[in-house]
Structure formats: structure tokens, C-alpha cells
């Protein structure tokens, strides 16, 4: 069994506030927050409230198919954000974890050339990530149990 790190709901509350505080302390003022679904939805919501940024966009990227199981490359799923909606904005890209960093790289590359600036914030960053995020709550090399995804899905009886 792979050693795991567990994020509790209380830890998540602290992580969201701490990430927002890092952004504020850095003087970065995002015009919009771009959440990477699904894992980045809750962290992006927490950060957006803490920073009082109401302009929240979503990009849905599929990469992980199970514990340590992933597609060869991450894929953006429709609807893809329109670049005109991002044009000239300062963007904070938020996800739950930078594991390989491939998902964050895909989204950051998509923003490049359209936004004034894009920075990344994650709850966890792993050493092998190809993207070094500007804002990180914790670094780990373990598989992470997130409170929103550690239980099996609820299915009809």
C-alpha cells in the first residue's frame, strides 16, 4: 500500500485561507480565478472568497483515471473557456495538487498569449511537478486523500 497524506476538512479550510494570504502578501491581484475541475473546484472557491474575487472561471481537464493511474496526456474537456473572456486579465489558476504538473502546464500554456499574467496556486505540490507553482500550501511526495474524493461515489441502489 502506498503511503498517503490525508487532508481533513479543517486542514482544507486553513489551506484555502493560507493560499489566499500568500497571494495577497505577494501583492498579486487576480482579475479572475481559473479553477481546474474537478479537484480545483473547492480550492478555487475557497481562495476566491478569501481574496474577494467574484470572477471565477472553470476549465475541465481529464488526466487521472485512478490512484496513480492517468492518461498519457491531460485533455481539456468542453466547454473550453473562450480566450476572449481571459484577454488581458491577471489570472490565478487554482488546482488541488501539482503532481506531474502536466495539467497545470496545459492550462497555463492555454492562457499564454491571451492573459496579462497567470500564476498558479495549489494545496499540494509534489517534487516531480514540471510546474513550480507560485503559491503552495504544502509539499509532499505521497498520494493525497482529499476529503471530497476519498469516499466512493454515491450510486443509486
UniProtKB/TrEMBL annotation:
Pfam families: Pribosyltran
Any one GO molecular function term: glycosyltransferase activity
Keyword Protein biosynthesis: no
Phosphoribosyltransferase domain location: 10-149
UniProt keyword Transit peptide, yes or no: no
InterPro entries, alphabetized: PRTase-like, PRTase_dom
PANTHER family, sorted: HYPOXANTHINE PHOSPHORIBOSYLTRANSFERASE, HYPOXANTHINE-GUANINE PHOSPHORIBOSYLTRANSFERASE
Name recorded for this polypeptide: Phosphoribosyltransferase
Amino acid at each position: 500500500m502506498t503511503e498517503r497524506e490525508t487532508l481533513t476538512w479543517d486542514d482544507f479550510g486553513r489551506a484555502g485561507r493560507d493560499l489566499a494570504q500568500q497571494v495577497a502578501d505577494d501583492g498579486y491581484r487576480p482579475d479572475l480565478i481559473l479553477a481546474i475541475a474537478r479537484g480545483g473546484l473547492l480550492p478555487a472557491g475557497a481562495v476566491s472568497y478569501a481574496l474577494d474575487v467574484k470572477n471565477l472561471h472553470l476549465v475541465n481537464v481529464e488526466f487521472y483515471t485512478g490512484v496513480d493511474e492517468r492518461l498519457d496526456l491531460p485533455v481539456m474537456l468542453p466547454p473550453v473557456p473562450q480566450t476572449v473572456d481571459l484577454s488581458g486579465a491577471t489570472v490565478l489558476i487554482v488546482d488541488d495538487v501539482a503532481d506531474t504538473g502536466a495539467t497545470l502546464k496545459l492550462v497555463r500554456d492555454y492562457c499564454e498569449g491571451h492573459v496579462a499574467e497567470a500564476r498558479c496556486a495549489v494545496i499540494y505540490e509534489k517534487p516531480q511537478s514540471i510546474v513550480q507553482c507560485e503559491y503552495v500550501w504544502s509539499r509532499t511526495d505521497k498520494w493525497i486523500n482529499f476529503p471530497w474524493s476519498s469516499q466512493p461515489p454515491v450510486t443509486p441502489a
